[in-house]
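USER: I would love a firmer grasp of how sequence relates to backbone shape in proteins. This is the protein in question:
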Amino acid sequence: MSEKDRKLESSCEACVHRRKILKGLIGVAGLGASLGFLASFGTIKPEEKKKGRRKINKGDKLVFAVGDMANKVITVDSLPVGKGTLAYPKGKEDHDNLILLFHAKYDEFEKPTKLKFVTKEGFAAYSAICTHMGCTVEWYPNKQFSFNFPHLFCPCHQSVFDVFHGAKVLAGPAPRPLPQLPIMVANNEIVAAGDFDGPIGPLPGGK
């Protein structure tokens, strides 16, 4: 075998080896993604803060963040009463813009919920970033621990938030409620009516 042929064979073997490694990594990533969504929405772990975030503006359409409907605009009909979903403002899929949107009956909401931020159809939205360590909160429509009503739950350190009372903290180490997002319905679609009413995630000093 010539020197040229030996080099070519060695190069091909290296390519095959790299392809095998790449396939293995893709397989592991796919398995990890699948396992990550076995919970109600799946826990999205805290991410390293990126430079700022794109502000949510009035009129930004909300889209599903996960599942078969991912990236599709959320309509009044696509999220029935009693259901919740992770969402993003379309085109602004920054980690700190992750939203927990849910649909209930309007008269179930009470102060300190900002009722003007809730649509008459009963849609309400909060930041999905826990104020403790920045994990992703999940929607629990049924009983969890001693809470037998819909609530938001952080699986990392078990903080519980009351969706009908301004996402106030019911249990766990979270130091403050989840910021609320003003929303409205336009042309049967759920859209933002402005930005969050407070800072996202944990604050310096754990406040």
User: Anything to note?
Assistant: Helices lie at 3-36.
